[in-house]
Structures are given as structure tokens and as C-alpha cells.
Amino acid sequence: MVQDAQQQTITICSDSVGETAETVVRATIRQFNGQDVKMRRIGHIKHEDEIREIMEEVHREGGFVAYTLVQPELREMMKEEAIRLGVRAIDIMGPMMQAYIDTFDGAPTRKPGLMHELDDAYFRRVEAIEFAVKCDDGRDTTSMMNADIVLIGVSRTSKTPLSIFLAHKGYKVANFPLVPEVKLPPELFEFPGSRIVALTMNAEKLFKIRIERLKTLGLPFGSQYATLGRINEELEHAIAIAKRLRCPVIDVTDKAIEETAGLIIEFIQP
Fold this sequence. Notes:
By secondary structure, the protein is α/β, with parallel strands linked by helices. The chain has helices at residues 19-29, 48-61, 72-85, 94-104, 120-134, 159-167, 186-190, 203-217, 228-245, 257-268; strands at residues 8-14, 37-42, 64-68, 89-91, 149-153, 173-177, 196-200, 249-251. A 4-stranded parallel β-sheet has the order 2-1-3-4, with helices on both faces. Strands 6-5-7-8 form a 4-stranded parallel β-sheet, sandwiched between helices. α5 packs antiparallel against α6.
């Protein structure tokens, strides 16, 4: 049964929380601009009967399944039900695990959720996320000296989402907005320039983003915030600041958050 174009769904199944599969699915969806696809995540699957019920529902409603199941009996059931019902099911983790076994002669633990065990890395991520929230948008410049990375840039150049994304990787990130009328904090000039990254964007692209922002906030379109003249002034000011700080500059125009984050990590690693 084919779904209406407005109701296409990808069902994500896991015997843990399903975050790995969801990350892959989100990355895939981004490659298809304009497609209205919903995701439904079902985690902590323990029994074969659950898989039967899920696959029956997908068969009725349409879409396909992406799954990460480390228990071999659950993976086998998923494959059998997919064949029986004619539902496409993508095994995200199985082929990788098999490649590891074949190449390195390893034996998997078959334990779901290992990625989310409370180890030191987990607590570092939690601390980094709390730090990013505390130091977002220049809120706490006194804590800036404790950051691993400082992001600077004009409004709407993805400073906050990048800070949170990098925090999930364990980096403490502070970000500061660059506005010509706002004096820069002295801490910014005390922080090593090698760990500051300036973000910039094409003026036309930034103009469109700011227009959409005004619509969201219900503000009038005549606001100086969303005029090309003001945007160019801010961008020129930001580049001048980056030169003073001797820090790298990344043009985030049309870049995915993951791509920009990868470049930032390359810049700050010795």
C-alpha cells in the first residue's frame, strides 16, 4: 500500500534507543530536499513478536524500515518478515559487524546500548552540553577561558547549533555574536586565536535566512536586521575582527552542520 506523498514514514527499529539508525536516516533525508518524510523511532525491542507487529503495521501504512539490532535472532526475524510482507528493511549495523568479524576474526558482545553506557566520555559530553548552553550567544564571557573552542560570527551563521553539535562530541564551546555596535569582551583577545573560529556566510543567503527569521518572530520586514546593506556591514566587521584575532574563517554557506563541525575540529587540533 502506497502512502500519500505527505505521509511518507521511515520506521526506525532498535534493541537499544535507536540513535545510531536515526542519525543515518537524518543524514539520508537531507540529501533529498523538499521531501516531506516523517521518522518514527521504536526502541528497546526485545521480542520477535514486537517485530512482527511493527512490520505488519509498516506493510499496511507504507514506507520502509531502518534498523540496528545486535541480537542475531531479532535481525533474522526482521529479514524474514521483510521478505514475507514485501517491506524494505535496511540493516544498518549488521553488515558492519559482519565485516569486522570476517576481517579481524572478532566476536561481538551482542549487547544493545553499549554506545550509551555511562563512561567518562558520556559525562564529558554532558558537561560540554551544559557549558555550551551557559556560554551561548555571549551570555557568560567570564567562562570563555575554559572553552575548548570559541565560535564568533554575525547573527544566523549557525553558532548555536554548531556549539551543541560539538558539545555532543565532548568539546566545550562558547560562542559570541559579532555586532558592530557591541564592544568585544577582553576575554576574546586573551583566548588563543588558534582555538577561535569565525563563521561567515554569503550575504544573499544570510538575507533570506533573516527574512524567514523575521516571519517566525512576527516582526516587520522593514527591520534593519534583514537588509543587505546592514548584512554586508556586519560581515565586513566580522572579517576585520577575525583578522585582528588571527583566527581561521569558515564560510558556512550551504554547508551541513556536520561538515562545518569537521572543519572546526581540524582547525583546532594540533
